[in-house]
Amino acid sequence: MRTPGDPAPDVTAPNQDGESVSPAFDDPTVVYFYPKDFTGGCTIEANEFEDVLPEYREVGIDVYGVSMDDVESHAGFAEEEGLSFDLLADPDGELAEAFGLDVEEGYTDRRTFVLADGTVVAEYDPELADPSGHAREVLADTKRDYVDG
C-alpha cells in the first residue's frame, strides 16, 4: 500500500461521463476509494464529500472518488446523488492496484489518500469507523498541512 512519502502513481481512468482523467497530483488532491456505488456507507461518504466540495475547491484541493464500478454505474450514482466531482471507474482494479489496494474480492476497502507535490502525503483508513465526518476531517487536515497560506 502507498504510504506517506511514496511517489504518487501515474494513473488514468474514465470518469462518470466517460472522459479520460489523469490527475497530476501536483496540487493537493484527495483520492478516496470506496467499495461500491449505491451502498449505505459509500453513499454517506460521497454525499459528505459533495457537501464540503465548495470548501475543497475554495482552497484548490481536487477530490476524486474511485471504485471498481464501471462508468455506467458511476453515471447513475453521480446523477442520483447529485455528485459534481469525478468518480473514476476502475472495473479492472488498475487504479486500486497502483495505490497498493487489494482487488481480489472485486471491490476495494474504504481508503483515502492525500497527494501533493507528486507524493502521497497522508493516508486514512475510514473503514475503522463510520464514514460520517470523514470528508470534513480530511479537508481540515489537508488545509492545515498542505495548502499554502
From TrEMBL:
Signal peptide residue numbers: none
Domain of life: Archaea
Keywords per UniProt: Antioxidant, Disulfide bond, Oxidoreductase, Peroxidase, Redox-active center
Reactions it catalyzes: a hydroperoxide + [thioredoxin]-dithiol = an alcohol + [thioredoxin]-disulfide + H2O
EC number: 1.11.1.24
InterPro entries, sorted: AhpC/TSA, Peroxiredoxin_BCP/PrxQ, Thioredoxin-like_sf, Thioredoxin_domain
Record Pfam families: AhpC-TSA
Domain Thioredoxin residue range list: 2-149
SUPFAM superfamilies per the UniProt record, alphabetical: Thioredoxin-like
Name this polypeptide is given: thioredoxin-dependent peroxiredoxin
Organism expressing this protein natively: Halobaculum marinum
